Amino acid sequence: MALDVSITHTLTAGRRTRGKNLGLLTASTAMDNAENSITTVLFPLMREALGLSSSALGVIVAVSKAVGIFAAVPWVFLAKRFSRRAVLATCSGFWGVWVILAGLSSSFTQFVILYGIAAAGFAGAGPIALEIMGDLYDDRRRGQATGMLYGGVAIITGVSAPLFGQLSGFDDGWRYGYVLSGCMCILIGVLVVVFLDDTRPGGGENRAGGAAVKAEEKAQNVVAGVRELLRIKTFRYILVQRLFSGQNVIMSFGVVFLVEERGFSTATAAIVATPFAIGYLLGTVVGGRLNDAVHRRWPASGRVMMLQASQLAFAAAVFVELQMATSSIGFFVAIFAVVGFLQGQVPVVNRPLIMAVVRPEQRALAFAVSVSTVEALAYAGYALLVGYLGEAIGLQGALLLVTVALTVVNGLCSGLLYRPYARDSAAVRDSPVAPSSYEGEPSKPDAQ
């Protein structure tokens, strides 16, 4: 009886610890997304105040993503050398001081430089947070956990965007927005330092023998680590697939599209950020559970099936959004909710897919390469492309090419993942592991 009580207490404590950590990881991950959302909402005010063209938004987004290509990996290796908690608090929290300085900048050039420095810090948050999350949850629950993380990100983004949109009533509203955002970042940094439990790398699969030690040593070297990752065929395919993905651009240009192409005011157009975020939240939560269910039913192909379905459905929804010429904000509220739901499917499929084919010791590096480098490169390039094409042919045509046509091609070509994913995920799943205590089970002492 005493043993049953002890085990129940351990399970409850384990769930509480994971829940607390997941909340903090969500808040730290949300900062990069929240900054992009705030920039989208406040850009019309900045454009008017500084006399900018539409292509300037593409420049801001491109610079903020491009710096992540170079900044993410150094943050990951700092987290391996020092406390992951301290590094995460710095890059996602205390680094917010640069956002405050960007809001106080006196010219567009100065703003871009300071905002780029701020983005260099946020680039490190995602890979470190995802690695810790991978340590907290096993393969059967990672879709649901990823859904909860990105769902929380959607809530933070959805609540903050329309609130910041109300700053359009002030002459320097865009400045106030960035100063407030930077202060929020610093607060999150403090919370991470005080409350986040820094779990050991690979805890979710706690590998037996000396294999984990050797893998960890290899992961310390960036060249050897990247070389090891590129030997995984699935991972190589994912990099190519994400490089040709233009889905995220709709998040940056959606409000501007409604202002420029459909004639809504900034405050009215910013309303769609909330239904998009609600849709995204439902997409991550529902999609995460559905992804886990499909994965359990078809472990060798389920996640790839979900990836293709989400991409093709997303392209169809955005096509309808861009083609509908109406002055009713109600229609766009509804369609942005649908687009957000489908966009929310992407991370809950993509992140667990990567976790399934990469050893725990190298997951942070894998996410630094795939998310903060390749995805950031694609995001930056397509943001610039949409910005300049928007001036030449209009935002509607630019978004049709990048977010619809390219996504359709990407969704069809993702079918190439089926065979290598089945093989690579089985190789990781069948490798020797020791029982984990992260699911709340009491750990056994090592044999002497």
Describe the structure.
The protein is mainly alpha-helical and 448 residues long. The protein is 78% helix and 0% strand. It contains 20 helices and no strands. Helix 15 (302-323) packs antiparallel against helix 16 (329-343). The radius of gyration is 22 Å and the shape is globular. The two termini are 29 Å apart. 55% of the residues are buried.
Task: Compile the SSE list and pairings.
Blueprint: H1 2-50, H2 55-81, H3 84-92, H4 97-103, H5 108-122, H6 125-136, H7 142-165, H8 173-195, H9 211-219, H10 222-230, H11 233-243, H12 249-262, H13 266-269, H14 273-297, H15 302-323, H16 329-343, H17 345-357, H18 363-393, H19 395-413, H20 418-429
Quick rundown:
This protein is an all-alpha fold and 448 residues long. Helix content is 78%, strand content 0%.
Structural descriptors:
globular, mainly alpha, 20 helices, 78% helix, disordered C terminus, disordered N terminus, 0% strand
State Rg: 22 Å
Q: Report the order of strands and helices.
A: HHHHHHHHHHHHHHHHHHHH
Straight-line N-to-C gap: 29 Å
Count all strands and give the number.
0
Structural class: mainly alpha
